[in-house]
């Protein structure tokens, strides 16, 4: 589909009663009618469509160029809607909802099959989340339908953390964009499967394993996230993702080895970029050095990761060498995204 013009609404997220603002009401009406609209959440921008309408979901897959065996997260405005969508709410899931919603946690539960089968890609489970963003919540409330929304990027590219990123990827391909400013968390929600006795993390994200365990006790991690050869239970996890145009490598022991690798590639005549943090910007000599936050505070790195990866695309570097991060707290999600962006290539 090619919409001739993508509408663009700017909304100040700090205003009161957003759900009755004209821009929000208009965008919500389009969603309800089956068009797709991009909107901000606290993690990344989502591309929303009415989860009850097959054609709306089809439009999402087409605009993104997304494989249709990759199910979508259904976004809702309140916990009361959960009962319409799932056949059972285990106590552990209820505890997680109370502790982390609205927030960057997606919960997988047995589906009641009340949404389009294209949303769940014919699985018997459904992924749900209440986002913690005033614009998203106002839009969901005004639309008054469950809204399926993947990240609003072209499939394979870094997720969008600004409306400009969405516009870059999807202008002309979607009905509209609600610009509510830059998102905060910067990496997507944690996806946790609550269909078994012990919850399983299928995708690391904004909520850490420790945070989950503090509420529900032991939580497992899908082995496919750290062991080669296992098939991931979250279909989306198997695809190459978040990749900038240049060839990217992660560099272990970067403080000792980074400059040597830069020099080697430059000797081969290649233009080299480095993804680093503010603590180390002045340690290197390369064609482009981009800091993404402070290593001291990994949340700042998560918040700027995707925009930094996109920024490399604006400069003609051929090789990107990235520092690695400790796999602790939100560092687990950061490393998961970096490994995918680099296609697991580590030096
Ligand atoms: O923060 C986020 O989660 C953002 C914002 C927009 O909410 N959304 C997002 O959606 O990241 P997406 O489509 O890019 O990622 C959804 C992930 C995929 O890995 C998908 O395979 C998984 O959730 N997923 C969805 N439904 C599932 C299900 N029933 N079982 C297992 N995994 C599921
Ligand atoms: Mg995505």
CATH architecture of the largest domain: Alpha-Beta Complex
Number of domains: 2
N-to-C span = 42 Å
- Helical segment count: 10
In this entry the ligands are: threonylcarbamoyladenylate, magnesium ion
Number of strands: 15
CATH class of the largest domain: Alpha Beta
Which class of secondary structure composition applies to the elements? alpha/beta
Low-confidence parts, pLDDT < 50 over ≥5 residues? none
Reported for the largest beta sheet, the result is:
11 strands, mixed
Quote the beta fraction: 15-25%
- What integer value in Å does the Rg equal? 20 Å
Determine the mean pLDDT. Answer: 94
Q: What is the string of helix and strand elements? A: EHEEHEHHEEHEHEEEHEEHEEHEH
Helix content: 25-40%
- CATH topology category name of the largest domain: DHBP synthase
Secondary structure topology:
Elements lengths: L6 E4 L11 H12 L3 E4 L4 E6 L3 H11 L8 E3 L6 H4 L5 H10 L4 E6 L14 E5 L4 H10 L3 E2 L14 H8 L5 E4 L10 E4 L6 E4 L5 H8 L3 E2 L25 E5 L2 H14 L4 E5 L11 E4 L6 H16 L5 E5 L7 H11 L6
Parallel strand pairs: 1-8, 2-8, 4-6, 5-9, 10-11, 12-15, 13-14, 13-15
Antiparallel strand pairs: 2-3, 3-7, 4-7, 5-6, 9-10
The structure holds threonylcarbamoyladenylate and magnesium ion.
Threonylcarbamoyladenylate binds next to β5, β6 and β10.
């Amino acid at each position: 589909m090619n919409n001739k013009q993508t509408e663009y609404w700017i909304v100040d997220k700090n205003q009161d009663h957003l759900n009755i603002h004209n821009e929000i009401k208009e965008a919500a009406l389009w969603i309800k009618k089956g068009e797709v609209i991009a909107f901000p959440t606290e993690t990344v921008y989502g591309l929303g469509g009415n989860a009850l309408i097959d054609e709306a979901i089809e439009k999402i897959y087409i605009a993104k160029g997304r494989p249709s065996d990759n199910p979508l997260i259904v976004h809702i405005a309140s916990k009361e809607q959960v009962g319409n969508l799932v056949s059972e709410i285990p106590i552990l899931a209820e505890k997680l909802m109370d502790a982390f919603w609205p927030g960057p946690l997606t919960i997988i539960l047995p589906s009641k099959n009340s949404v389009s089968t294209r949303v769940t890609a014919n699985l018997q489970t459904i992924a749900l989340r209440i986002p913690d963003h005033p614009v998203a919540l106002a839009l969901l409330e005004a639309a008054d339908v469950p809204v399926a929304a993947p990240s609003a990027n072209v499939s394979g590219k870094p997720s969008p953390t600004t409306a400009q990123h969405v516009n870059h990827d999807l202008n002309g391909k979607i009905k509209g964009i609600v610009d509510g400013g830059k998102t905060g968390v910067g990496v997507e929600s944690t996806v946790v499967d609550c269909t078994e006795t012990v919850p399983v993390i299928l995708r690391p994200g904004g909520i850490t394993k420790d945070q989950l365990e503090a509420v529900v006790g032991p939580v497992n991690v899908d082995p496919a996230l750290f062991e080669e050869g296992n098939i991931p239970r979250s279909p989306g996890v198997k695809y190459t993702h978040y990749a900038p145009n240049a060839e990217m490598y992660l560099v272990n022991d970067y403080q000792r080895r980074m400059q040597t690798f830069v020099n080697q590639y430059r000797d081969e005549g290649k233009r080299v970029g480095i993804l680093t943090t503010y603590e180390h910007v002045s340690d290197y000599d390369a064609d482009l050095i981009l800091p993404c936050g402070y290593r001291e505070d990994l949340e700042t790195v998560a918040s700027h990761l995707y925009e930094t990866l996109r920024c490399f695309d604006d400069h003609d570097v051929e090789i990107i060498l990235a520092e690695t991060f400790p796999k602790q707290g939100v560092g687990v999600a950061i490393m998961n995204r970096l490994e995918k962006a680099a296609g697991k290539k580590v030096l």
